[in-house]
Design a protein that fits this description.
The structure is a single chain. The chain is globular and about 35 Å long. The chain has a single domain, classed as Immunoglobulin-like (Sandwich), CATH 2.60.40. By secondary structure, it is of the alpha+beta class. About 15% of the residues have low confidence. It is built from one helix and ten strands.
Length: about 140
C-alpha cells in the first residue's frame, strides 16, 4: 500500500512539473514563445509576447534567401484551430524596418493547438508560412 501511495505521489509530482514546464515555455507573461518556419519564398522567425489567449504582441523577422524582406513588403497574421473549426481575423503587421514587423491583437481565442499563418507579399512574391503552437490560458 505504501508503494502504491508513493508511486501515485511521484506521478502527480511529475505531471505537475510537466504542466508547469509547458506553461512556462508557452503561457508565461515574461518569456516569449519563439517560433520559426519557412515557405517557398520566405523564412519567418516570430516571438509572441505573451503566447497565450488575449492580446498578444508578435515581433516578426522576415527574410528571403537570407536577406531581410525589402521595404514595401506586406505581412499579416491569422490563427486557426483546426480541431475546433475556429479561425481568428487576419491582423496586419506594421513594418518597423526592412525585414522586421510587429503585430498586436487577439490571435488565440482559447487554449489548445493552433496554427498561425503568416502571409507575406513582397519583392520575392507572395507566400504563406504556417507554424503550429500550443497555447495556454
Amino acid at each position: 500500500m505504501k508503494r502504491a501511495r508513493l508511486l501515485l505521489v511521484l506521478l502527480v509530482l511529475a505531471a505537475t512539473v510537466g504542466v508547469l514546464r509547458v506553461v512556462g515555455a508557452v503561457g508565461s507573461d515574461s518569456a516569449p514563445a519563439r517560433l520559426t518556419g519557412s515557405g517557398e519564398r520566405y523564412a519567418v522567425s516570430i516571438a509572441l509576447v505573451p503566447a497565450r489567449t488575449g492580446v498578444v504582441e508578435a515581433d516578426l523577422d522576415v527574410a528571403s534567401g537570407g536577406v531581410p524582406a525589402a521595404a514595401g513588403t506586406v505581412v499579416s497574421l491569422s490563427a486557426a484551430m483546426p480541431s475546433m473549426g475556429h479561425a481568428m481575423p487576419e491582423i496586419a503587421a506594421e513594418p518597423e524596418r526592412p525585414g522586421r514587423f510587429r503585430a498586436r491583437g487577439e490571435f488565440f481565442a482559447m487554449p489548445g493547438a493552433w496554427e498561425l499563418t503568416i502571409r507575406i507579399h513582397g519583392a520575392a512574391g507572395a507566400d504563406a508560412v504556417t507554424i503550429g503552437i500550443s497555447v495556454q490560458r
